[in-house]
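Annex B. Sample input.
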Amino acid sequence: MESRWVLSATIFFIYFVIMMNWSTYIYRFKATSTNNFSKKTITTFRRKQTQFPLNCFNGNMTLTCPKDYYPTRFEQYQDSSTESTCPEYFKWIHEDLKPWKRTGITREMVERGQNVSHFRLVIIQGKAYAEKYAYSYQTRDVFTIWGILQLLRLYPGNIPDLELLFETGDRTVVEKQNFQESPPPPIFHYCGQKNAYDIVFPDWSFWGWAELAIRPWEALLQSIEEGNKKIKWKDRLPYAFWKGNTMVSYKRYDLTKCNASDQHHSYAHIYPLSWDKEIERGFKNTKLEHQCVHRYKIYVEGVAWSVSEKYILACDSMTLFIEPIFYDFFTRSLVPRKHYWPISNTNQSMCNDIKYAVDWGNANPDKAEAIGKAGTSFIEENLKMKFVYDYMFHLLNEYARLLRFEPTIPAGAVEICSENFACPLNGIWREYMVESMVKSPSDTPPCTMASPYGENEGEEK
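Annex B, continued. Sample output.
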């Protein structure tokens, strides 16, 4: 019980300090953790050029950024023969920016979005500056910005000057119905939906979700892949599995009605989760790499989209995708009955659809296994961290081309870099940052993005 209160107090302290401005946050955040995780840093990039170490020149009191740390321009890729074509979902960048294609983006448009944004990010001559406007849940804003700082390390000097606003909540905020007569404010966000103009950007969990002890994506994906090899698909439990917080949406509450009981056949194993209890247990029952033992796994939205999509799809299990309202940056290219099995989101049909999918899969194991492996192959091939960074690279470049004003550093902004984000920290927060840190420029160029969709091809489905 004592450890639970210690960790709860730590999290409360985090909430308090990140409500301060960035410089105060960087100085005062001294969070610690008793969790032990591997110190190994895993990377998909070859490291043969100039190294960018974490330069904590003043220990955990490092509050400023090193001078002349990043090259002003870095274009000499060592291996241009490995140029690749971007995954198909990159085309959605053009669709997400289409509302401003004709008018461009003016400063007035940007400023109209400040009241619903959590922070402003400015990049000028390869250096980043941030101004905080509102409290973000846990450390979403911190790890989102950390990811952008790693992009600057991967492609130094190749991110144009820009100024943007970011919203870190769950639901979309730029509703189309509110901007029928005027251009919408361009606001970056983790998800989108057909009735909103939010610009979709990779979420914070790619660099780790420290509060839930979910490791950075690159390392976690490798652990899930290793776990997949331990049990063959046909030897897995022949049921549908889901574990999570049921208190955040009606969809998840309705899902619990599909659970195994004395009244009906055991086709679904649904496990409501209390994160307070998991903190107390040290997250022993929530390790994602240990949750790939069922033939079928269910994806269901929470308040909005859920970061669990990529973890579930990576399991080799046939994913039962309860019809979503929201999408993130990569899921719009998933194909039903190829990468996943669609499930109705109405409470009248949901349980019947899940039972039908499980019965069909158990009667057609080769076909069900193929759908599961196709979904996992999509993740393994198209969601490597290199492609995540390349998506960010192309999105920010396309966005910057639309700007009709010169980006400037706000009076309330502070310069940010890997050093003054990671060096002052301790515990799992610093550990995840070090593990996900880019240590040298890429030796290959960003992937080549395909041309935009046709006028009708890119419509929401």
